[in-house]
Amino acid sequence: MPLIEVVDLHQKYGERDILGNINLRVDKGEAFALIGPTGAGKTTLLRLIDLLDLPTSGRIYFDGIDVTELRGMRLEVRRRMAFVLQKPVVFNTSVYSNIAYALKWRGARGISVREKVSNILELVDLLAYKNRNARTLSGGEAQRVAIGRAIVSEPEVLLLDEPTANLDPISTSKIEELIANIIHRYDTTIIMATHDMSQGQRLADRIGVLINGEVLQTGVPRDIFSSPRNREVAEFVGVENIIDGVIVSSQDKVVTIDIGGGVIEAISDYAIGEKICACVRPEDITLTLSTVSSSARNLFVGEITQVVSLGPLSRIEIDCGFSLIALVTKRSSEELNLARTKKVYATFKATGVHVVRRGK
Amino acid sequence: MTEIWQGFIKAIELIVTLDPEVMEIAGRSLSISVTSCLLASVMCIPLASLIHFHNFPGKRILINVIQTFFSLPTVCVGLFVFVLFSRAGPLGGTNLLFTPTVMVIGQMILITPILLGLTISALSGVDKAILDTAISLGASGFQVAVVVLREARYAVLAAVIMGFGRAISELGLALMVGGNIKGFTRIITTAISLETSKGELELSLALGMILIFIALIVNFVLNRIQQR
Question: What are phi and psi of A164, to 5 degrees?
């Protein structure tokens, strides 16, 4: 049985749909990341799960109990969870008192509070600041106070909303390390919202892609990145070459895709006539200065429109009637003397093309 | 002009030598206003929280009415309290008219709108994220109210001090329901009014200086609080 289950959840603000038809299951002990662009509805969903707001329709189950509208039980259920808001909010008091709040609200007093708070201060690496007013801390430190304050009551579920938004890289890595530490040390179920795909990949067991108020795909990070379900997910997870086309022939799963002014061969289950997108990873494209015979099924000739150096690699943008981006090593780029307006041949294998449906 | 100047020097003498009459009047003024301010705060701060944290029909109108009463004329409150406690009034039997107690009650009524209104606006000034954080950390309704009040403590204290300032400086109400009885209900403002009409400028000036000094301290404290 999942610890948290969300069924057909809808949320409207006035006439605007914020969330539509959300269905999610998060198991006990799992680290689940909701990834999606800003404004996708991640915060709204977390607020509904934490019972801060009431949904327009749909149900939320916590540990098998329908908690959507149970008035009397909301506090009791909420006390089994903790939510760290995107903006690090600290109370205008000492770091120690900030962290002790959740314990005192649950009726704990005396030595047990002191011990638990000290342990948490150590975990979030703020023991030296325990008597300082939390308002005087930096953004990253304040976020560590917020996380410490949330986990001190040992919640079953920890909800994190963009825990590293607006933080510098050093603070970000400290917070990520802290979250990884919490996942490792406690039996807490974590649901975190982030717009940073790589962060989701680093910290989560499973990812849900939330775009425009809908969960478009859920799965383990590797699957989401290697096999995005549709164009929107592919775009969001950073696939750079997404070429629209229609399947015109199919034989033993080898399909030919008409991309308007050329064809691409790929491996796919989609039927003839299906409108699809062909996704090609830039690192799967080979560039040559002349045609060479190879096993690669796709060959396009084009003119280089831009060369951008990315440390050891070069990102080459080619106009083949459509835009194609290739990633080659800097050394190859120099040996082939790749530069703007130069004519090149781009090849990639049919197996390097990932075909996804257009639209939802 | 020399008369005023001499009165001024005499007034300073009265203050410096801690003249018993001046000290007694100033002490009474302080004790009545501090009492009314504390009692009104005990009543108004929880009431303001109740209004702030609950949504009910007419809430906006209620807040507007409260704000309108910020500048309630002291003589109107005086008249109301007088009618209430006069022999023929509904509370006439208590025999409280022309006592410090009724002055405290009057001042409480006078400053209630200020305390309520400014406490509500102090609570509204607290970041909504504080409220959400408290709720999400498992605070009950009462615990949320306490934590939000704590966050707004300086603004709430400023409201209390504003209330005190209005209470100690008002005249009409104290005169009407206190009666300016020497040694019993005479306070700074009523004494100044009486002594000036009698032509006794020294005492008036001395008490006036004390009143301004109190106002100065109140303002100084208020400024310090608002800078936080």
Answer: -120, 15
Residue B138: closest C-alpha in chain A: A79
Closest chain A residue to the Cα of B151, Cα to Cα: A92
Q: Is residue B18 part of a domain?
A: no
Full domain range(s) for residue B191 = 26-227
How far is the alpha carbon of B149 from chain A, nearest alpha carbon, in Å? 11
Q: Which residues contact A78 (CB under 8 A, 6 or more apart)?
A: A50, A51, B135, B136, B138
Q: Nearest by CB to A150, which of B129, B134, B137? A: B137
Q: Give the long-range contacts of residues B123-131, CB within 8 A, separation 24 or more.
A: B123/B48, B123/B49, B123/B52, B123/B53, B123/B148, B123/B149, B123/B152, B123/B156, B124/B52, B125/B152, B125/B155, B126/B151, B126/B152, B127/A89, B127/B151, B129/A85, B129/A87, B129/A89, B130/A89, B130/A91
pTM: 0.83
Instruction: Kindly state whether residue B4 falls inside one of the protein's structural domains.
Output: no
Residue B19 forms part of a structural domain: no
CB distance A76 to B138 below 8 Å: no
Residue B21 within a domain: no
Chain B contact for A74 (CB, 8 A cutoff): no
B113: CATH: 1.10.3720.10
Partner B contacted by A153 (CB < 8 A)? yes
What's the gap in Å between the CA of B20 and the closest CA on chain A? 45
pLDDT in tens, chain A (360 residues): 899 999 999 999 988 999 998 999 999 999 999 999 988 999 999 999 999 999 999 999 999 989 987 777 888 999 999 999 998 899 999 999 999 999 999 998 888 899 999 999 999 999 999 999 999 999 999 999 999 999 999 999 999 999 998 888 998 999 999 999 998 888 899 999 999 888 988 999 999 999 999 999 999 998 888 888 888 898 888 888 999 999 999 998 899 999 988 899 999 999 999 999 999 989 899 999 988 888 888 999 999 999 999 889 999 999 998 899 999 999 999 999 999 999 999 999 999 899 998 876
CB contact under 8 A, A78 and B136: yes
**Structure tokens of B105?**
């009650």
The C-alpha angle B114, B120, B125, rounded to 5 degrees, equals 120
How far apart CA B201 and CA B207 sit, in angstroms, is: 10
From chain B, the residues in CB contact with A48 under 8 A are none
B139–A105 CB contact, under 8 Å? yes
- Residue A340 is given by DSSP the state T
Residue of A nearest to B141 (CA): A75
Both tokens of A254, joined, read 């080898």
Using DSSP, state whether B98 is helix, strand or coil: coil
B225 CB neighbours in chain A (<8 A) are none
What is the DSSP code (8-state) at residue A208?
E
Residues of A in contact with B132 (CB under 8 A): 47, 52, 83, 85, 89
